Please model this.
Amino acid sequence: MKRLTDFIVNKRIVILAVMLILTAVSIFLIPKVGVNSDMT
Model:
C-alpha cells in the first residue's frame, strides 16, 4: 500500500494531466452519445 501511495504522490502531475486529457476527450464525445428515451 505504501508503494501505491508513494507512486500516486510522486506522479501526481502526470496523473492530473492524463485525467484532464481524458476529460477533454469525453467532453468532445458527448454529442456522439445516443440516448434511448423509450422506456417500454
